[in-house]
Amino acid sequence: MAAGTLIELDVDPVAGPEPEPGLPPGWRRVARIAFLAAACVASLVAAQPLGPAHLVPVASLNTAPMLSERVAGDMMYAIVSDTPPTLDAYRLSDGALGWSVPLPIGDSAASVEVSPAFAGTVLVNSLDPTTHGDRTAAVDASTGRVLWHSRSFRVTQINIGATALLADDTTTEAGLSRRYRQVDARTGRELWAYEVPAGWTSALPDDPPGSNTERHLVAVSPTGAARSLELATGRQVAAANLEVGAPPAAEADAPFGPGPERDDSSFNAGPSLMVRGDELLVGYEDEATGQTALTGYRTDTLAPLWTIPVRSLTLRVDGCGTLLCLGESGQVRALRADTGAVVWSGKGWPGVVGVLGRWLYTVSDLAASYGYWPGPARLIDPGTGRTDLDLGKWRLVSEPDPAGRPALFERTEQSTGRVWLGTLADGPSVQPLGSIADLPSGTCDAGPRYIVCLTTGELVSIWRYRT
């Protein structure tokens, strides 16, 4: 997104459009937090009567295009296109520029994030693997002073806290090897390092902000040898040869126990090696029968828990509440993480994009790869699969986080083209905040008190909101 005197003006409310399913969701962190689930029963409609507006204009900024931005508290940090590109800090209370420094990494198409544990630290990460020079840097949020920089890239699927996980890849005759380094997010001091052998595959958790379940890194060889490390300390806590059994010939939803031991040379982790919460999930194909299965292991011991048959290795398994949601071919099975038992199942809602409060945010179509899905959305009870709210034409544009960032929704008024913004309220329901003219879809970001949007004409507009 491209990113004063306070103007106390309310926005006149506009009659809302008819409640009907429609607009697709946007999800700002879709590479790290995707889940799968389904809706099983009739839904409620998200559109509520549109009451008084709650948006107060603050400022409009006429800046060079913003390539990446992050609203954090009452500040916005943005990478701005310039010669050279800059990292800028804006005060949202009046739109004033706090500081501007040359971008401390070599890739202008970078991302910017703020460490919740160190609110005074901004991390910028290069997204281009071919970049020569530094790929990660930390900047003091108050002054713009570069705290540390590194040629290593940051593993962005791991949530930033007091530490950041960096990595370096090396290609050898044996294959690709990766060296992980955990560093202090404020100082860059190395806390531990671990080398994944060439040819091995590493699996890392990819959990929502604030979930506190990113505990283990698991590395698996092509023959099934596995090692598990604590992310907090880098200490190896388990080593095992993964022994997976062949699924039965008959297709079934019910799980079955681990089968007979197999020769390690036939082990193939396939594309579905993943860590979800405290479980390692390994999808594999039995070479003798050609059938595919998924086995769950404890990440702290690498002991097998359960095995279930699957149709293919083209599947997703993601956390949904206390369950695991396995989705394939438009069908979802919600499993108990400890036994693999099916708690609920359903069809027609193949995509769970994230967790919003007590609910799963689901979409009807995951055909697009990143950030945009053309189907309608719902909020699903993760324990039952029941639809608690049909979001109608509301689509999610900004995900919540533990620092007070709200779930921000938008819906377009077809008759006028105005875009309504809203937040998630109890019920659940979407509480409209007000409508904005000349607002391109999907260009807003939100903090606990301010909303920032790229409006028509490349202006960055700031509103203060109240719920």
Can you describe what's shown?
This protein is mostly beta strands and 467 residues long. Helix content is 0%, strand content 45%. The strands form 9 sheets. The protein has a 4-stranded antiparallel β-sheet with strand order 1-36-35-34, with no helix packed on it. 46% of the residues are buried.
Outline of the structure:
With 467 residues, this protein is an all-beta fold.
By secondary-structure content and strand pairing, the structural class works out as mainly beta
**Residues in β-strands, percent:** 35-45%
Helix content, binned percent: under 10%
Strand order of the largest sheet: 1-36-35-34
Number of strands: 36
At CATH's second level, what is the architecture?
A: 7 Propeller
Low-confidence stretches: 1-52, 245-271, 367-374
Total helix count?
Answer: 0
Kindly state the mean pLDDT as a whole number? 77
Q: What is the CATH topology?
A: Methylamine Dehydrogenase, Chain H
Largest sheet: 4 strands, antiparallel
Distance between the termini: 25 Å
Q: Which term fits the overall shape?
A: globular
Radius of gyration: 23 Å
